[in-house]
Every structure is written in structure tokens, then in C-alpha cells.
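Q: Could you fold this chain for me?
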Amino acid sequence: MIKKILSYYNKKLWRTLFLVCAGVLFAITLGSLMNVEVVNVLKQRIPLPLQLLYAELLGFISPGPRYIIYPLLIKLQEFGINIGVIVALISGHVLIEPSTFFVEAGFFGFRFPIKRFAVSLVVTYIAGAITVLVSNFL
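A: Sure. Below is the predicted structure, expressed as C-alpha cells.
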């Protein structure tokens, strides 16, 4: 009995470590591609509304728990990225979670996760836009 329990937790531990390592690798890889010149060129060439959309989609594809990307977000803030873009990135990571698609589809049907995804995209974009407006006044 104890052997089965230990085996179960051992498998879960290795799976969790694998997922956390994948998230750390993603953040390190993305962080190594960033420098001040690249960020400044992106800020100049891409309008702010499109930056918000890209941020939420980048948050959508980023793996692992969100605290893994915090060092990356701090680096983006130091490079002068608008705080609204950072909010959109975090919100996109939290609200638009693809891993729950099949679970939600199993419980509520396939239309539910598609509608949730669409609503989450809109809500995340609005959160970033409101943050941009508020940060301009503060």
C-alpha cells in the first residue's frame, strides 16, 4: 500500500518538475532574445493596441505557472514596455488556459471552451487597455 502511494507521488513529482523546467526554459529562452534595441524597435513599429493583442497571445502560449515569467516581465518593464502590455500578458496567461479545453468540453460541451476562449480574449484585451488608460493619468 505504501509502495503504491510513494510510486504515485514519485510520478507526480517528476511530472511537476518537468512542467516547471519547461516553463523556466521558455522564460530563459525568451529572455535571452530580448535586449533594449529589440524592445525599442518593437515599441516603435508595433502600435500599442497590437502590442496588447500580442501580449495576451504570448501569455496564452507560455507554459508553466505564471510566477516563472515574472523575471521576464520585470525585464520588459525595465526596457520601458507599457504596464498595460504586462497586465495583458499576465491576464492572457491566467484567463486563456488551453490545458482546460478538453476538461471543459467533457463537462459542458465543445461550445463552452470556445466561447470562454473568445470572452477571455476580449476581457484580457480590455484589462490591458484600461491599465494603459489609468497608467497615463497616474
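A (continued): Helices lie at 2-33, 36-45, 48-61, 70-78, 83-95, 101-108, 111-137.
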